[in-house]
Amino acid sequence: MGDMFIRHIELLGYEKRFFPSQHYVYMFLVKWNDLSEKLVYRRFTEIYEFHKALKEMFPIESGDINPENRIIPHLPAPKWFDGQRSTQNRQGTLAEYCYALVNLPHKISRCGHVVRFFSVRPDDTSPVTDSQIKKPEVFLLPKDSKKNPTDITGPIVLQTYRVISDYEKSSRSEMALKTGEMVDVVEKSESGWWFCQLKNKRGWVPAAYLEPIDGPDESEEQEPNYAGELYTVQKSYTAIEEDELTLKEGDTIEVIHKLLDGWWVIRKDEATGFYPSMYLQKSGENSPVKSELRNRSAPPRRQWLQTSLAHLDNTELPWREVIEKNEQEENRSKAQPAVPPRPSKDLIMNRCTESTRRKIL
């Protein structure tokens, strides 16, 4: 397997944090050559120190010997006091810097210094925090304003989802879940793995284990594209369920419906079925072999999870209806009102009105 290197660095925005004291960190989505995507957080002072060290490593390319030979991009020094305005206004320069950095000659853009700086650190997935202090405020760059990063939104309240079943993590980059927990979704990947945060924890979780706090919302799903979109299979998969397809690496298929749980409806010749989206790549996009992908399993399907939760009474009802039905029956058994005895004929004749007495005569 070849050495790891960065394909792209996207500036997502920044966070305003309050522990151990108020400060700001930039959020980067780092896309690697194995097609993995990692979320990392860096203070600007760290970025500037990284930049200075990079210039020292490559004095010719930094223009120290001859300014005309400079190809390493410029980066302004930190201000004496970096507040929110300077953090926000610097985003345009920082986004351009990252773009220029990954497009430098390979001896620079793929050197160990660059790779190490943008690799995931423990505090990227589990930031140090204090439960007594309010959680960070997130300021994201809108998708349609990347050309003008000063058009910042914020603070943005991340979407909150409810965990519908326990989940045990299988790698350090994932996050364990407990039923009923509320998590904030930072990133929704088409692979069906979402990057979430819960208090001081961060990690990837299967989208199938989450639902909006107001209940399932089908409007979140994309509309089907029956014309189909060409994709190439990057990893073979053998169908487990009847509605899935078995495909081999290199097969060309058509994607007709992209679902949030990472299982897309695809078409191969005359056959249609589900296939893990993380094993697919859009046709025409040339990328190195997914080394990490080959060792990672597809996320669970939402349908599988719902079926396992709906085992009560062996019913075919959706799992949520099963739970609600059982709760209603349990509540009725706990608080069943007593039925009063029917009054005797003599009691009715002595105490009721004339119209009531006529009904029993």
UniProtKB/TrEMBL annotation:
GO terms for molecular function: phosphatidylinositol binding; superoxide-generating NADPH oxidase activator activity. Residues 324-333 have a biased composition (Basic and acidic residues). Its main location: cytoplasm. GO terms for cellular component: cytoplasm; NADPH oxidase complex. Keywords: Cytoplasm, Phosphoprotein, Repeat, SH3 domain. PROSITE patterns: PX, SH3. Residues 4-125 form the PX domain. Residues 156-215, 226-285 form the SH3 domain. One of its GO terms (biological process) is superoxide anion generation. Residues 324-346 are annotated as: Disordered. SMART domains: PX, SH3. CDD domains: PX_p47phox (cd06887), SH3_p47phox_1 (cd12021), SH3_p47phox_2 (cd12022). It is found in: Cytoplasm. This is Neutrophil cytosolic factor 1. The lineage of its organism: Eukaryota, Metazoa, Chordata, Craniata, Vertebrata.
